[in-house]
Amino acid sequence: MKILLHVCCAPDGTVAFERLKELGEVWGYFHNPNIHPEEEYLKRLDSFMKLVREWDLNFVESEYNPREWFETVKGFENEPEGGNRCRMCIEFNLDKTAIKAKELGFDAFATSLTTSPHKDLIFINGVGKKIGEKYNLKYIESTFRKKNGFLLSVEYSKKLGLYRQNYCGCVFSIRKVEKVN
User: What pLDDT is recorded for position 166?
Assistant: First the structure.
């Protein structure tokens, strides 16, 4: 089975790659136009590419197009973190991953988002299944944070020198972090 893995960030991608390789050939897809500012996006992309080089991973390039993402979440800018804007963002990124998987002839797709202890697994896996049905692709349900997955991602990050961010990614989530600090 050939799997396209949506990678939200290199640290979360580590465990996802490790666990999915048992199911088939895994390719990474760093599709994250939600990440702001662009310097932050480039840091995370650079870290993803470092992981690709270190582990000799296959990957599919993605365009950084924040305008389309902003159009998708327009009107939801003031939603709380974890609310409807975040759900729209996850659905947007998984939909784009499924489209790319279908376009390139992959059998399935998955996401590294389930490594994070801050994400809603029921929503992510539910929307993934729905999108999979829409494109006639298998969505691989996951809970990568189980079996110490998140802790393992932290250990891999230290060992490989991967950049670990302190906010989800969008300009609205960074505001929340700035208020706390």
Answer: 87
For the chain, how are helix, strand and coil distributed in percent, rounded to 5?
A: 55, 10, 35
What is the rounded distance in angstroms from the CA atom of residue 47 to the CA atom of residue 166?
14
pLDDT at 177 over 90: no
Q: Which residue has the tokens 């700035």?
A: 178
Output the average pLDDT for the chain: 94
Q: Taking 60 as the threshold, does the pLDDT of residue 180 lie above it?
A: no
What phi and psi, each to the nearest 5 degrees, are found at residue 80?
A: -70, 155
Report the C-alpha gap between 73 and 87 in whole angstroms.
10
Q: How many CB atoms lie within 10 A of CB 46?
A: 12
Question: How many percent of the chain have pLDDT more than 70?
Answer: 96
Q: How many residues in total does the chain contain?
A: 181
Beta strands in 31-149 (DSSP E): 58-60, 108-111, 138-139
Q: Which residue has the tokens 């302190």?
A: 166
What is the rounded CA–CA span in Å between residue 177 and residue 181?
Answer: 6
Hey, what are 102's tokens?
């279908």
What is the pLDDT at residue 181? 46
Is 6 in contact with 47 (CB distance < 8 Å)?
no
Domains and CATH numbers, the chain: 2-180 (3.40.50.620)
